[in-house]
Write a structure and sequence with these properties.
single chain, alpha+beta, 5-stranded antiparallel beta sheet, 4 helices
Length: about 160
């Protein structure tokens, strides 16, 4: 009977020595860095959207996007397709990056579509103006022509295209 009881005591000593070694390493690390790294004591993670926006430049034109994102202002984004201007999106900036890829929410999009019609010619195509509302939209930087702050007069003009 002494055999198993002795083994338990030896295992308990091993566990204590592991804990003591762990505590010693933490104390040494705290003395070196001033902080304790532990998988249980991690700092709260920053959301990915905030990480991407923080990496974008804060000077120049990007400073306006940073301000719009911080104050939840709506921006007007003019987009293009292969043959010219596609339309205008208006929404709140959620995130952006150095390539001017934009993530917008509560988006209103006014755009034109080239219709396939027998009467339409290549020189004189038939166009149809459309409007839609999206909960969220990702606009790629290569398709963005300009980004501006909307004004009241512009909203009325784009609501009633001629």
């Amino acid at each position: 009977m002494d055999g198993p009881a002795t083994a338990v005591v030896v295992d308990a000593k091993k566990e204590e020595s592991k804990e003591e070694a762990r505590d010693r390493k933490r104390k040494e690390q705290k003395a070196r860095t001033g902080a304790v790294a532990s998988r249980w004591l991690r700092t709260p993670k920053v959301p990915l959207v905030d990480q991407v926006a923080s990496r974008a430049p804060k000077e120049g034109p990007f400073s306006v996007l940073h301000a719009c994102r911080a104050s939840q202002m709506r921006v007007r984004v003019m987009t293009r397709h292969g043959r010219g201007i596609r339309g205008v999106c208006t929404g709140v900036v959620v995130a952006f990056d150095k390539h001017l890829n934009l993530l917008l929410r509560d988006v209103e999009e006014d755009y034109t579509v080239r219709l396939r019609h027998p009467d339409a010619t290549h020189a004189n195509p038939r166009l149809e103006h459309r409007r839609r509302t999206l909960e969220q939209a990702m606009l790629f930087g290569h398709a963005i022509v300009s980004v501006s702050l909307p004004t009241r007069g512009m909203d009325e003009v784009h609501a009633n295209p001629r």
